[in-house]
Prior knowledge:
alpha+beta; CATH 1.10.630.10; four-stranded mixed beta sheet; three-stranded antiparallel beta sheet; 49% helix; 10% strand
Amino acid sequence: MTAAEVRRTDGSARDPRDCDFALEPLPGDALHETLHALRRIAPIAPCRFGGQPAFVITGHAALLEAFADVDAFPPHRMYRASFEPAIGESFISMPERERHLVYRRLATPAFRSRAITRFEEAGLRALAHELVDAMLERAPQGPWDLVAELTARFPYKVITRLLGLPREREDAFHAWALALLRFREEPDAARAAAKEFTAYLRPVVAARRREPREDVISELLAAEVDGRRLSDTEIESHIRLLFPTGGETTHGSLGNLLSLVLSRPELQERLREDPSLVPAAVEEGLRLETPIAVLPRLAASRPVRFRDVDLPADAWVLFAIAGANRDPAVFADPDRFDLSRPSRDALTFGRGVKSCPGAHLARRNLQVAMEVLLERLPRLELIDAEAARPRQSVLRAPAALRVRPVR
């Protein structure tokens, strides 16, 4: 096997340029070995995506350059093709830079408001305890699946409670969000989910206009920049966007973090003994297993040249954040979980005009959930290590985290 080859699951060698990042599961180290091999070939290398020819950027320096080059890689194009027909226009799908910045200035302060601060201080922790209580009530001695009972529920419940939406509808919001994410594969189901979601939201937004509360919807309604306010339609699109983007990526982040910690008993013990290390564990977990390991982008609608590579018009270009976050040119011993590693160079939340505005809240989700789990269930062991391995590339997460208490 050459330096530019990787192993298949049957042990045979393969050329990493044959990898299809949309269709192959790439569990655990398979993804990272593939990205390492592609980086050895070139910072931008050919690959496949959904059966089509594509290019993947794996080097840290090259990816920083690509995030900044909005002419070669217009960030709105993929979002517009993948989500806008179901979610509606939002700041991530707006092509005009000035309009995007105004909308972002209107929408994002609501997630740094007093209502958010108060929820971070008490609501996040109470919600995490609520979910652990439910686990223990169902099965006092275990086993539990932390994906089904915690990581796939916690982020969505956080969003509904920040928005002030009824708790009895939280499962419906989760189902709508998953349908919206699958617009390209199941467009009719996504449009139906969007219609139901909008029908539910419209009277809620109208009620908040009449009687504001201390929640994010009320903050969005009150936001004003240079005399401009968000319309009801814009607020509805923003709320629809929050569930599949903020909810599903945080679900993946939390599942990946727990997979990393639970598969390292010595790390779990260290965090239990010193909870002050949890924020560092969160940062290192986000670097090692980012929930969007490979971010698809559509290149410009004209041929472009990037890093001495000629890209055809409308080419799929994959921003391999997982590759950049393990680039040995930036991170020493990049595949090792290191609590003392500085986190500033990780590209988990992107860079540039479309970087994630919810990064702070996502980190707080992970920190609080980890702290509460260590407090309530301090010694857990994985039952099914294979299911616990993060898998897929675009939205990466473990299929299950089946655990039981250590006796």
